[in-house]
Write a structure and sequence with these properties.
heterodimer, A: 2 domains, five-stranded mixed beta sheet, two-stranded antiparallel sheet, 7 strands, B: about 140 residues, mainly alpha, two-stranded antiparallel ribbon
Chain lengths: ~250, ~140
């Protein structure tokens, strides 16, 4: 019989239910395993200590983007945050900031979904083939490479939790949605730049971004939303002067 | 309550002290704050130009004002802020401009290095010109 003493790590988990006045932090002792991530610890808590703990997760391999949370104050995918990085603890887990909290670690994503839809993140064709593609739209590897980085977004929303502008402006379209708008604007098969123009260029669009850059720093897929937004600003500025100085070159 | 479930949205933000919460935020905050010092510097230079057209006593009084210890400290802080703003801004260019040659994005260094090189050349020319005017 083994007599080894198991190393324990203290978890301080944010708890909140809609009928509570105030959130609270609940402390759980979780056995430390070198190969465990924060999501493993949350699953351990739910399975063996407290079945009422609520959080989202699915793939546990950094693909689905649903397990984002603040881990010791930083937005992280809990499936990619190894306990060893936070030892000896304690490890504080909270819901992503800049979103309404539904319950415990679960946030309300409706506002984001509206913003995402507003930039029409899909291929738009002048020939009206948005819903049903009418033919093949070929693309070279070089054309694909232009937008490939921005297409890696998994909508985990860590970028919104890292963004001070999103923190103070509910209307700001935000990093992920603007990066996806730029992704489609750069796609050689897309013809929807004009349709996205007003949403992207309005005050709550790219110009509200003050280039803090933390969205790119926390992005687990290296999308670089800050870069996408600045590149859209550059395109927008050039487009403004083209319309002003050479209006005959603008497609009506 | 007759079974009614209270639902109150709980919004948690970074708050107005967001810039104190991470070193990276603080560095960005300092970068943006530098514009205040640079704006004041521009005003001081514009007043200096105006004073240059005034009687010599007025001009000298303004120069004395610029050399008082408080203003010297302000100038030192301003130059540190200006250097920080320039350094950070030059380094951000590769994120802002995506230039591709033969389908491949050019390395960021090729965008950053010419800026620092140009900055050094222009600074050298200005120092040489000031030295030359002073010696003449």
């Amino acid at each position: 019989m083994s007599t080894a003493i198991e190393t324990m790590v203290k978890f301080e988990v944010f708890r909140y239910q809609p009928d509570w006045d105030e959130p609270t932090y609940q402390v759980y002792d979780v056995p430390y395993h070198e190969d465990w991530v924060v999501l493993d610890a949350l699953n351990y808590i739910k399975d063996t200590i407290d079945g009422t703990l609520t959080y989202r997760w699915s793939c546990r391999m950094g693909v689905c983007g649903s397990c984002g949370a603040m881990v010791n104050g930083y937005p992280k995918l809990t499936c990619a945050a190894f306990l060893s990085e936070y030892m000896p603890g304690p490890i504080r887990v909270e819901p992503l900031v800049n979103f309404n909290v539904e319950r415990d670690l679960v946030t309300n994503l409706e506002g984001f979904m509206d913003k995402l839809e507003s930039v029409q993140p899909w291929i738009i064709r002048d020939d009206g083939a948005t819903d049903e593609l009418k033919s093949e739209y070929l693309q070279t590897p070089a054309q694909h490479a232009v937008y490939q980085q921005f297409s890696m977004c998994i909508n985990c929303l860590l970028c919104y939790a890292a963004c001070p502008v999103s923190s103070h402006s509910d209307e700001f379209i935000g990093p992920a949605a603007l990066a996806l708008a730029q992704r489609y604007n750069l796609d050689s098969r897309d013809e929807g730049v004009e349709q996205r123009r007003d949403v992207i260029l309005k005050d709550e669009g790219i110009w509200e971004c003050s280039f803090v850059g933390e969205c790119s720093a926390v992005c687990p897929k290296h999308v670089d939303p800050a870069g996408a937004i600045q590149q859209a600003k550059m395109t927008g500025a050039i487009d403004y002067y083209r319309r002003l100085l050479m209006p005959w070159t603008v497609k009506s | 309550m007759d079974g009614e479930v209270l639902t109150q949205p709980l919004f948690r933000s970074l708050g107005w002290t967001w810039w104190t919460k991470r070193p990276s935020y603080l560095l960005v905050f300092l970068r943006e704050s530098s514009s205040v010092f640079i704006a004041v510097q521009v005003v001081l230079v514009l007043v200096l130009l105006h004073k240059a057209g005034q009687p010599a006593a007025d001009y000298q009084a303004y120069l004395d004002f610029l050399w008082n210890p408080g203003m010297v400290v302000f100038h030192v802080v301003s130059i540190v802020f200006a250097l920080w703003h320039t350094y950070t801004w030059f380094n951000l260019l590769p994120q802002t401009v995506a230039i591709r040659i033969r389908g491949r994005r050019i390395p960021g260094l090729l965008l950053v290095a010419p800026q620092f090189g140009g900055w050094a050349v222009v600074t050298g020319l200005i120092i040489a010109w000031v030295w030359w005017v002073g010696a003449a």
